[in-house]
Sequence to fold (694 residues):
Amino acid sequence: MKIKSLYIAAQQKNAGTLFVSMGMMEILKRNLHRVAFFRPVIYDKNIKDGDISFILERYKLDMEYESCYGFDISYVEEMISQGRDSELIEQLIEKFKQLEKEYDFVLCEGIRRSFLTSTISYDLNVAIAKNFASPYINIINAKNRSVKDVYEDVIIENEYITSQGCVHFATFINRIAKEQHATLQEKFSKTSYTCFLLDEIKELNIPTIEDVIETLQAQTVIVGEYDHTRVVRGVKVAAMSLDNFLGHIEEDDLVIVPADRSEIVLGLFGALHSNAYPNISAIVFPFAMEMHPNILKLIDGLGSFSIPILSVATDTYQTAKNITKVHARLRVGSERKIALALGLFHKSVDIAMIEQKIATTYNDIMTPQMFEYKLFAMAHENKRTIVLPESEDERILRAAEIILRRDVADIILLGDAKSLQETYLRLGLDLSKAKIVNPHDADLIEEFTQAFFEMRKHKGLTYQVAYDTITGHINYFATMMVHLGYADGMVSGAIHSTADTIRPALQIIKTQEGVRVVSSVFFMCMATKVLVYGDCAINQDPDAQTLADIAIASAYTAQLFGIEPKVAMLSYSTGESGSGADVDKVRKATKIVHQREPKLLVEGPIQYDAAINKEVAHKKLPNSQVAGEATVFIFPDLNTGNNTYKAVQRSSGAIAIGPVIQGLKKPVNDLSRGCLVADIVNTIAITAIQARVL
Fold:
């Protein structure tokens, strides 16, 4: 999938994140009409974020400020401390995906290093980028560091980013000393890394009066319209007499002096009017002191020549100490700095290469959280009604509440309304939006019994047996609701066996036209991709024809859920290397699939390692379009499939969603009796999606 976003982050402080974001925004805005800017985490939602405000104003983005960020630090810390990391990521994905849907491209700027605490680690940036499927741009701060340290940093960060499943787009090395530039350039010219080297420009790192005001939270005593952009090159504390102090001031100094030192203040204004002394940038009064009214009156009468005066609550020592922490920031009004920054960016960065890379970079990352979001979004688009017959199970009720809260599907619960309401209220749940149907409703029982009798009487079913079946087996009642249109799909199996869930569906709903066999798949959610495994739950030892049916149905299911089907027909040998009844069955099934679906990418027989690993695939099947890139894995029998999916699930930490039943006219899906609430939620969403097309 072609990329629609980039994620920019720096590990070190003061690396120039906004500078790089501005440069990338320049590139994007000249090529794309609607570009969004998004910061997943800001410092405080009650304080306007400077980077967001800068980008919004400078580039006139068609966005509201509130849509440009996810959450603030306090919320993120709370979620992480409660072990709700996955929920946090899901919430961020939801906000990000909304922007991705509305805009041509989303430029993301990661968490500032200065925000990070013991709770929030740098790894969170990589985790967020991975779950956004956003290629990663990292920034290295080279100031006061050796060439060796910078070079090693680039290698380490690149290896880490790629090891976590992210696509590494580029590295910007910023604030390079001019004497180091050539050496670093030579070193990186011998690597495959995409690195851009940006020299240190002193003026970009000189703070302004605005930076001082913001960092010190200073009050303005006298500040003119254009004074905010004045630069501060040095700091002096007036601790001596005026005649001695004047000999120490330098151009663009900031002078800290108590407000009651009137002779110093007047002397500095005198120096401003004299050609014999440098011009200072500002005066700061510590202790929140105020000037004598007569001195203020005198200064007001000096006309247009003025010095900005600020006031802070801290003492002289603390004020001087705080000023050392002031760092230069790019601001919308700092046109000179912006021009200088953009000049450096365009001089140092291969713009055409970046444009080409954006146009040609593809990213197929799909994390479990991304897949879950995708399920919910697809189900929400065209909501369907799902019946849950096992309402006595607490997990079912908790899952139903989540589905209703997230507006994924409408829910029908089977049970006594009063008793069920007492149960869910006791659990602290709100299921007021769920429809409750009593399975002992006489009118429904009569309608369902008659319908069941009519469809099965040719098999020898009597009316009494039909009645006993509908009233005695809750899954038959629920399946009949789906068949007759009261619901669009059913999910069961939390307290019933697979046979108890599937048998009514086979008798009542039956298979789709042209489908000979009902089968199943599991969605195996790995760290960065989702694979489809079939059949791991229903067909014990399928023959070649049945195996071909399973493969075609599984490919269709994969496509339905946005996974490009590349089908691997698994066996213990690859290509023509093996023989025997089992491998011959797979070989025959593969030929049947080719004949029935000539456009479907399918390879078989093929071993699992050759199907999933590109290096192995290159050795065993170098010309295959599937080998090494398979997304749908068809196992030769139930024994192999069931054991493999459980082995992969337990050994790799993969999330297995399923079994998803395929081949029925209307969707019915089975749960494991050991299922978790999250499993039920995902299965309901999948069932709702299936119901849209069946």
Notes: The chain has a mean pLDDT of 90.
